[in-house]
Design brief:
Radius of gyration: 40 Å
Number of helices: 1
Order of helices and strands: HEEEEEEEEE
CATH class of the domain at 102-213: Mainly Beta
Shape: elongated
CATH topology of the domain at 102-213: Immunoglobulin-like
Strand content: 25-35%
Distance between the termini: 128 Å
Largest sheet: 5 strands, mixed
CATH architecture of the domain at 102-213: Sandwich
Low-confidence stretches: 45-55, 69-73, 87-92
């Protein structure tokens, strides 16, 4: 009799435990704010993903100087246009002598006015690209010692002082096809074209432009 009672109790306890274990228990969902507060009291913004920057060198932009260019590459990777241009050594460069019919003397490019802080002066070989080079002076001071004239415009920005500003372009050579030829364009500090002309010079001759600032 005792054995029967113990067996019945054992079955009842087993059934009760199995019933309770079969019922799933609920667990409250923990929801946290998107921006947590760190130990210093500042909120952490942004996503949890920490994505490293793939740009190691940021472009340098100087907003105070409107003439400063945006540098997308380090200076050591930038090269001057025409830097690797070579003139065939079999072709002799011609330098006409003063007094000959092929000699091109100094040239007066005229006078213009500009009240801006500076002007941009660019030039290019508008005829046969043959290795012409020029030196640029501003008020008898060297602004660029050696510009190789290619088919594309290149030049310098020149600060203007009140009164007369004399710009001289001295022909350093005549290339392989005489004379030294170039087209010159001048832009004001707003980027507007204010002057355009051309020159024909022999080696040593200069083209002079005067800019007056009131």
């Amino acid at each position: 009799m005792k054995t029967t009672i113990i067996f019945i109790l054992f079955v009842l306890l087993s059934f009760t435990g199995w019933s309770q274990g079969d019922v799933p228990t609920s667990k409250p969902l923990k929801i946290e704010v998107a921006n947590k507060v760190d130990e210093s009291g500042k909120k952490e913004t942004g996503t949890a993903l920490k994505i490293p920057s793939v740009i190691k060198e940021q472009p340098e932009i100087n907003m105070k100087d409107s003439r400063a260019p945006v540098k997308m590459l380090p200076d050591k990777k930038l090269v001057q246009a025409g830097h690797n241009m070579k003139i065939d050594p079999k072709i002799k460069t011609r330098n006409a002598k003063e007094g000959s019919k092929d000699f091109f003397p100094n040239q007066n490019l005229g006078e213009i006015k500009s009240n801006g802080k500076f002007v941009g002066v660019v030039c290019r070989d508008h005829e046969y690209v043959d290795g012409d080079r020029v030196k640029i002076f501003l008020n008898n001071e060297v602004a660029d010692p050696n510009i190789l004239l290619t088919g594309a415009f290149k030049g310098v920005n020149l600060d203007l002082k009140k009164g007369f500003n004399q710009i001289d372009f001295v022909a350093l050579n005549e290339g392989s096809s005489s004379p030294n030829t170039a087209q010159i364009d001048v832009y004001d500090d707003q980027g507007q074209l204010i002057y355009s002309n051309k020159w024909l010079l022999s080696t040593g001759s200069k083209a002079t432009l005067v800019i007056t600032k009131e």
